[in-house]
Amino acid sequence: MIVVENLHKHFGSFRAVDGASLKIEKGSITGLIGPNGAGKSTLFNVIAGVYKPTSGRVIMDGEDITGLPPHELFHKGLLRTFQIAHEFSSLTVRENLMMVPAGQSGESLWNTWFHRRRIRQEEEALRAKADEVLEFLTIAHLADEKAGNLSGGQKKLLELGRTMMVDAKVVFLDEVGAGVNRTLLNTIGDAIVRLNRERGYTFCVIEHDMDFIGRLCDPVIVMAEGKVLAEGHPDEIMKNEAVIEAYLGRGLKNKVKAEAQA
Q1: H or E stretch covering 23
Q2: Residue 15 has what DSSP assignment?
Q3: Staple partner for 31: which of 114, 201, 213, 240, CB 3.0–4.6 Å?
Q4: What's the rounded Cα separation, in Å, for the pair 112 and 119?
Q5: What's the pLDDT score for residue 249?
Q6: Do the bridges between strand 2-11 and strand 55-60 make them parallel or antiparallel, or are there none, so unpaired?
């Protein structure tokens, strides 16, 4: 579904992404891991159109989407969430969801004058869709709560819900577990698995919680210093010497190995 070919993103002399190539297969939940500064979020931002690449290509379903802006990628079904949730804090949870679909009749001044019935019908359909999404995510009891009052984990669920309000094909989740307690993280994980299995969503997930990655993701791609270091099943990745060294450094790696042999 997504093919990244020799992608570079430089900020002056700093090579945040330095020749990364990878594939995200349709119907997969692909994990993207690596130490801080590995280039994971920058890679996400380039794929999702937030940054234009210095060089290289991004292909989606055979179409070159390199450098397309986020709103165009949104219409193609490519969505991205962020480490820090971007909710409309003064609106209710339901209203946050209802705002997502583009091209609503109520956005036209002409329609507000002459097509009020159409607007009302659309809003009723959107409300029903939003309530179905909230029920799916097990947060229906928060429908009328102001989004700004939600916990960090609930805001991450809301962001996931926003992807469900449109025909998402592939969703990039950036550190979905950051600041989330274990119970809500399990709820988020369950929702991701259900969306993948029941609705055919393709996911790519950046996450530092390796238990979470191991439970959800196959394959796992490892980045270090802007490049792809390794790819494979989570169990294989956890035993990979180069991956261990990238995370721990050579000295700590040797210490861990010595302790394991003692």
Answers
A1: strand 14-24
A2: E
A3: 213
A4: 7
A5: 65
A6: antiparallel
Cα of first residue to Cα of last residue in the chain, in angstroms, is 46
Residues 6 or more apart whose CB falls under 8 angstroms from that of 239 comprise: none
| Residue 251 confidence (pLDDT) | 43
Tokens 């993280």 correspond to what residue? 185
For residue 160, how many other CB atoms are within 10 A of its CB?
Answer: 26
Closest CA to 183 of 202, 156, 161, 165: 156
- pTM (two decimals): 0.84
Domain limits, the chain: 2-87+166-260, 89-149
The pLDDT value recorded for residue 136 is: 94
pLDDT tens digits for 181-225? 888 899 999 999 999 999 999 999 999 888 999 999 999 999 999
Give the amino acid at 191: A
Residue 3: strand, helix, or coil: strand
Quote the CA–CA distance of 163 and 115 in Å, as a whole number: 28
Distance of CA 259 to the CA centre of its chain: 37
- Structure confidence at residue 238 (pLDDT): 86
Are β-strands 2-11 and 14-24 bridged in parallel, bridged antiparallel, or unpaired? antiparallel
CB atoms within 10 A of CB 246: 21
Average pLDDT of every residue of the chain: 87
For the 2-87+166-260 domain, the top CATH level (class) is alpha beta
Count of other CB atoms within 10 angstroms of residue 66: 19
H or E element in which residue 174 lies: strand 170-174
Residue ranges in the chain whose pLDDT is less than 70: 83-85, 102-115, 119, 248-262
